[in-house]
Amino acid sequence: MASGFWVVKLTDRACLISAFITIWTLRVEADAFWAEEGAIYQRMIDNALYGFTRIPKLAGDLEHLDVFEAGEPEHPGKPSVLGRRSYIDDILVPADNLDQLCDRVEDLLEACDKWNLSISVVKSFWGMPKVEYLGHKVSHDGLEANPKDLSALTDLEFPGTLHYAIYASTLNPENDDLADLDLRWIHAHRSFEVLKEKIAKTPILRHFDPDQQAVVVVYASDWAISGALMQEYDQVYYPVMFASRTLKSNELNYGITEKEVLTLLRVLDLNYNTLVGRPIRDTPHWLGYLDPAHYKDA
């Protein structure tokens, strides 16, 4: 995305604004505008999907709408024709049944026709029970890891060094047999295969349900923090997303409670658009014992 460019038609007024002087003459780019920022293209797609088409037009403008202006919705409060936002030009059309899918695809095609946007047939897939989207396999069940991305791990050969063990120090007891590595020990090979299998079998992430309460589970170790956003179904917690990071040098001296607060803040930050205005439940339930004055900035 950092090196990508998109070609979008300009209105006559926008052409005059984008004119620049060269050593030969005044140059006006009337055919196309080269946009380098992904945010500009994201706004263009949002304008099309949400119907932001009430844009004042000046005399002499081209017949195409200027998608770079913010615009106003034709019908305030109307959701996206897809029911959600797209990520730049990667558009996912989810549906609960075939009729809903056909209706949303028809609305999408009408929006593209209205805004003079084209869809690559070669890069598109229609009516699929499971599709690849933003590095994941997406289906009605949720998000799961792409097998192609896991092949580098599952095809990993038995190591000839012990340095990798520090990155999997929490996976015991399989990791214990690898501490004193000896190629003659069959237990080391077996533990290595089990270790790869555990990492490769990542759980399927459920789609977030706005009608279910959000539960944040936090964990902190001596050098890293991790957390998960979950939702409960039939007394079972299903993960919606995971988040983790290593601690900075000044954070290594924090107590366990402070580290878990950092974990909670990271989960809330990464899921702001999902959780804003919604009640959440933390696990373990220690937030009620914290001094609000001490953490008022957080």
How do the strands of the widest beta sheet line up side by side?
Answer: 10-9-8-11
Portion of residues in helices?
Answer: 25-40%
Elements, N to C (H/E): EHEEEHHEEEHHEEEHHE
What would the average pLDDT be, to the nearest integer? 72
Specify the structural class: alpha+beta
Please report the total strand number as a whole number. 11
- Summarize the main sheet: 4 strands, mixed
Distance between the termini: 33 Å
> Shape, please?
globular
Return residue spans where pLDDT drops below 50 for at least 5 consecutive residues. Answer: 26-36
Fold blueprint:
Layout: E1 6-8, H1 12-17, E2 20-21, E3 26-27, E4 33-35, H2 38-50, H3 98-114, E5 130-133, E6 136-139, E7 143-145, H4 147-154, H5 186-200, E8 214-220, E9 224-233, E10 236-246, H6 256-270, H7 272-275, E11 280-283
Parallel strand pairs: 8-11
Antiparallel strand pairs: 1-4, 2-3, 5-6, 6-7, 8-9, 9-10
Keywords: Nucleotidyltransferase, RNA-directed DNA polymerase, Transferase
Pfam family, one: RT_RNaseH_2
Domain Reverse transcriptase/retrotransposon-derived protein RNase H-like: 189-280
Description:
- It is a single chain.
- The chain has 298 residues and is an alpha+beta fold.
- It folds into 3 domains: 6-127, no CATH class; 145-200, no CATH class; 214-289, Ubiquitin-like (UB roll) (Roll).
- Helices cover 26% and strands 18% of the residues.
- It is built from 7 helices and 11 strands.
- It has helices at 12-17, 38-50, 98-114, 147-154, 186-200, 256-270, 272-275; strands spanning 6-8, 20-21, 26-27, 33-35, 130-133, 136-139, 143-145, 214-220, 224-233, 236-246, 280-283.
- The strands form 4 sheets. Strands 10-9-8-11 form a 4-stranded mixed sheet, with helices on one face.
- A hairpin with a 2-residue loop joins strand 5 (130-133) and strand 6 (136-139).
- It is globular and about 65 Å long.
- 13% of the residues are buried.
- Mean pLDDT is 72; it is low at 26-36.
- Keywords: Nucleotidyltransferase, RNA-directed DNA polymerase, Transferase.
- It comes from Phytophthora megakarya.
- GO terms for molecular function: RNA-directed DNA polymerase activity.
- This is Reverse transcriptase.
- It holds the Pfam family RT_RNaseH_2.
